[in-house]
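Long-time lurker. I teach an intro course on protein structure, and each term I like to show students one example going from raw sequence to a predicted 3D structure in token notation. This year I'd like something fresh instead of my usual example. Would anyone be willing to generate the tokens for the chain below so I can use it in lecture? Attribution to the forum is fine with me.
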Amino acid sequence: MRWIWAGVLVLTLGCEGTIGDPLRDNPSRRPGEFGTEDVRFDARLWRLSPQHFNGELERLFGSGVPEVVVPASAPENGLSDIAANGRVDVGNAAVFAEGVRSVATWIVNNLAATRCASYGTDECVDTVAGWLPAEAFRRPVSRDEENAVRALFDELRADYDYDYAFAGMVRGVLLSPDFLYRTELGEEGDNDEVVELTDYEIATLLGFALTDQGPDAELLADAERGRLRDPDTREEHVRRLMGETGPMWQRFFWEWLHMSTLNSQGAEVGLDEALVAQMREEYDVFVDTTIAQDRGTLRELLTATHSWTRPELAAHYGSSHPGSGLERVEHDATQRGGLLTQAAWLVSHGKRGRANVVRRGMGVFIDAMCFDITPPADLDLEAELERIAGPDATVKEIVEARGQDGTCGNCHRLADPIGLVFESFASDGSWQTEYVADGNPVETEISLDGLGTFDRANDFSGALVDDLRFQHCMVQRLAHFMVGIDVGTPDAITWTSEAHAAFLTSDTSFEELLVAIVRHPAFIERNKD
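-- Reply from a regular --
Happy to contribute to a lecture. Here you go:
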């Protein structure tokens, strides 16, 4: 029997959502005509995330600089680097101080990091005072600020040796709020309601939002010229930097699709650590090449039948590998297509036993489609499962019984069909046609009203590309990820609605989506206090 679920709205037991696109055939609701609210968020200070903090250290001092383990802010919807949650306070200030101390000690012992012709001289102190504050603060500094850095060295040198005073000067810069924080305070203008960010604040926002690192020389040059408030100039930088956006996209999809459990789940299902590392490598190269290097689309990301693997991972897939290292591999088009059929996502949402349907179904339904599910707090999942289906039920029988149950069905009939279509992949991401535990055949055929009938995960993944809810969720989460605050769904907000319209007009081009997000006035405007 085929599992069928009609895409109707469910509002019971904390579950809310629909699969399929209820607005697709409604001519009164077209892309770009959804959001009506023109939002601006408040001016703010925004602490560097651990990744950005260490990235900035490498930008300033080169490779080999010690990594500093600093506290991460609380995530939202799986996304890190959330503006409201990042701060330096009494509880974590010592962590920053000790981490920066190790960096300064390393710099003292690495002449190249100082950019000095010779270490141990007054000229070296002047050199560092001349370049470090400006580059660390991501803006020009005044003569007074340069002098304050030099004065810190002189004050320490009166009581300590040269190395200690030099390291103290470096620590002073790296512990400054101008380095630790990104400011988005703007300048007073004629508008009574909003302020525009300064050009250097825009340069910093663009740098981190697009490349996951601070602004490069060209962004800072246009900031100095006062050009970054012009949307055409911001668009020029998006297109110029598109090839460098790979790290940003890698982190975005990793966080949005909740893939951080790859290592732990890989260990649970018995995978070798080296093979798990190859799964992450495949993901990184695929995302970078598809989006940043080839300037591709969501359609390509979720349907491409090729990826880049090493021989061991290709063999795990049952694919032919052309060489001995990391190479482009063509997979069986009847089995794999796109990111959701690659091992990194499958294993991250896999589990030893019979829980793959739930983990993968919920992974798409909750994470990728922005639905909320709140199970009863006192529910004993194992006991309920045995009550519903019995200990010897097949996966398909469990799915059907759970969907029809009065307690569990309110949630599971929404997400379980999605998970079922991925059952051709074992917990370790390999292809399976029958279950090892009991020899029962794998049954995957599902029918989702509004999307269609599927018996293969790659076909379902391709259909997601055209699903309005999936598109809206991705655009909303991407804007949230780039600016550190949830600006709202395209259903309600003009900013994300217009970005979504540009995304669709370009046949799901990621580059055009970025352009639309950064061109909008809300990208550079903040509410007045």
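Some talking points for your students: The chain has 24 helices and eleven strands. The two ends are 61 Å apart (CA to CA).
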